[in-house]
Amino acid sequence: MSAEPVETVCAQLEALVAAARALGSPLHDPFMAMSFLSLEVIPALKVTDRGLVDVGRMAFVPLWVET
């Protein structure tokens, strides 16, 4: 939420993403990824830059079924 016009907010976000890339972030949208870290609707699972984490077990959750 912002009191600024959408054009201003968009330009500022683009500048932040460009700064993150300049610092070496390989993520397409690092701030969107960060927003999932505290998402309250999925308290048992968290998305991190290293993968999906089961918070209760403090362990990574495999994304593929191994057969």
Question: Overview of this structure, please?
Answer:
The protein has 2 helices and 3 strands. By secondary structure, the protein is of the alpha+beta class. A 3-stranded antiparallel sheet has the order 1-2-3, with no helix packed on it. β1 (45-48) and β2 (51-54) form a beta hairpin.
The percentage helix is 25-40%
Overall average pLDDT: 85
Strand content: 5-15%
Structural class: alpha+beta
Question: pLDDT below 50 for ≥5 consecutive residues: which ranges?
Answer: none
Strand neighbour order, sheet with most strands: 1-2-3
Give Rg in angstroms.
16 Å
Assembly annotation: single chain
Structural shape: elongated
Secondary structure: number of strands = 3
**First-residue to last-residue Cα separation:** 46 Å
Number of helices: 2
Taken in chain order, the helices and strands follow as HHEEE
The largest β sheet comes out as: 3 strands, antiparallel
List keywords for this structure.
67 residues, alpha+beta, 3-stranded antiparallel sheet, 3 strands, 15% strand
What is the fold's blueprint, element by element?
Elements: H1 6-22, H2 30-35, E1 45-48, E2 51-54, E3 59-60
Antiparallel strand pairs: 1-2, 2-3
What's a quick, concise take on this entry?
The protein is an alpha+beta fold.
